[in-house]
Specification:
Layout (H helix, E strand, L loop, with lengths): L2 H13 L5 H10 L5 H10 L6 H8 L16 E5 L12 E5 H16 L7
Antiparallel strand pairs: 1-2
Length: 120
Amino acid sequence: MDLKIANYIKKMYEEDKTSSILQQEKKFIEGGYGCRATFYNYRKRLNLHKNYIAHRNKSSAKNKKGICYFCLNTDIEVHHLDVNTKHNSDDNLLDVCHSCHIKLHNIYESLKKLGLLSLN
């Protein structure tokens, strides 16, 4: 977990009780800290995730059960298939556990090194 991002989200949560979660999400993205999925993943890990389930169901329409696509773990993150964290359309998102998420990125890196994959 990136402490800079975690501290930013905690500070925003504690200091800005009047803003809606969507306003905080917008501020997070505009501040260059990451995408919508990153915002909600950090809120979940920091136990600030009242609305996380609603986000997850919106984020990954393919998997409304909240389980990892590969191993059925229920502690999930959202993976961007094209590795572009700004591309949040449903056909680009996949619910995976942390372990499978790391494996996916390792596979992407291996394919890139072999010249078999080119992601922008």
